Amino acid sequence: MDAELRQLRLDHPHPEPLMALGQQLRRRYSSEQAIWLLQQLEMYWDAQRLQAFRQPLELHFEAQALQMGSRWPLAERRALELAQRYPGLWLLEIGGGIGGDSLELARTRAFRTVEQEDLRRRYLEHNLKTGGFGEVEVRGGDGLTQAKGAQVLYADPARRNAKGRQWHDLAPNPADLWNLGLPCCLKLSPGLDESQLPPGCDLDYVSHQGVCKEATVWMPGSGQVRAFLHGQDAWLVAERRQPPPLGPLEPGMWLHEPDPAAIRAQVWEPRQGWRVDERLALLATPAGLASQWTQAFEVLEIADADRKNLIRLQKKYDFQPLEIKKRGFDVEPEELRKKLPRGRGGGAGVLYLTRVGGRHRAVICRRV
């Protein structure tokens, strides 16, 4: 069915209603084949949207592995750094999935990959072969038992359940990998507890499509913590530094909301900025100081955040559309929106509910 799947994707490259298409496929194929083709087509659309693979046209996908796997720009960056940190060392990948990392690793070195689940392993073999990397050895079973002879490890530990990537729910357990004593790179959740990491490791928080997608742990390391932000043509990189001092937020200044990876890594960009509250990562700068690490907002007014005052402010500025954002503020933006008057002619504006100098405040602003 590979040729049929490829043609189906070429004929339907963008998302569309599936019901009519499903009826057409059932007239040509068995019910089981039609369902598989539709599922693969829909996951192909997802793969394109997510930038999950460099060349997804002929690949086979499994739903959970597609959602949880690496995005190819992140996998490419990691594969290149693995080659730079550990040149010439024989690598074992534990948890190959359907090939999100394997396809990029194969561009830089020979290696072996292990995947326990049968369906994912079959798809992994297919995807490597389709990508021109059929020489990569793919094995089943427990990767921890197959580390003999490996000189460096890469692993993306999988969830054991749907409750989230808790440390004790990961397979394999990161501690078991570190205990092997080999140089290694682990892709973990950005919500990890840094206190559980081995002393001296390096830690990268990586952002893609506006989301902090992962934390990459490198052993051995020098203890550095970095943020990576994927741009159109290159990666931005910044290192952790001490928090800047506290300062005022006043009309005419710019309020900066950092990228999620910058928050996790505590890189505090732009460097000319100061914190507006000791519990938040929001920064203020004089007008005109833009940064690729932040979204910037021109501050128009700062006021009390009670409902009566918010209604007054919306009547005054008449924003339409009105964007409601919050940081350190217990409110549901969409519920609040229902209680505010609808604007008409004030143009686009932002109601930013946050803490300023330890107080809950309403910051009226416009996006820069």
Can you describe this structure?
The protein has 3 domains: 2-50; 66-230, Rossmann fold; 254-367. Strand 10 (225-230) and strand 11 (235-239) form a beta hairpin. The longest helix is centred in the first third of the chain and has 20 residues, at 31-50. It is α/β, with parallel strands linked by helices and 368 residues long. The mean pLDDT is 92. The strands form 3 sheets. Strands 3-2-1-4-7-9-8-10-11 form a 9-stranded mixed sheet. Strands 13-14-12-15-18-17-16 form a 7-stranded mixed sheet. The chain has 11 helices and 18 strands. The protein has helices spanning 2-11, 19-28, 31-50, 63-68, 72-85, 102-105, 118-130, 174-178, 260-265, 307-317, 333-337, and strands at residues 91-94, 111-114, 137-139, 152-155, 158-159, 170-171, 184-188, 202-208, 211-219, 225-230, 235-239, 254-258, 274-275, 283-285, 294-303, 322-327, 349-356, 359-367.
Question: Could you give a quick summary of the protein structure above?
Answer:
The chain has eleven helices and 18 strands.
Low-confidence parts: none
Give me the CATH fold name of the largest domain.
Rossmann fold
Shape: globular
Mean pLDDT: 92
**Contiguous helical run count:** 11
**CATH architecture term of the largest domain:** 3-Layer(aba) Sandwich
Provide the spatial order of strands within the biggest beta sheet.
3-2-1-4-7-9-8-10-11
Structural class: alpha/beta
The helix/strand series, from N terminus to C terminus, equals: HHHHHEHEHEEEEHEEEEEEHEEEHEHEE
**Number of DSSP strands?**
18
Sketch the major β-sheet: 9 strands, mixed
Count up the domains. 3
Portion in helices: 25-40%
What is the alpha-carbon Rg in Å?
24 Å
Share of β-strand residues? 25-35%
Give the distance, in angstroms, between the N- and C-terminal Cα atoms.
Answer: 50 Å
The CATH class of the largest domain, by name, is Alpha Beta
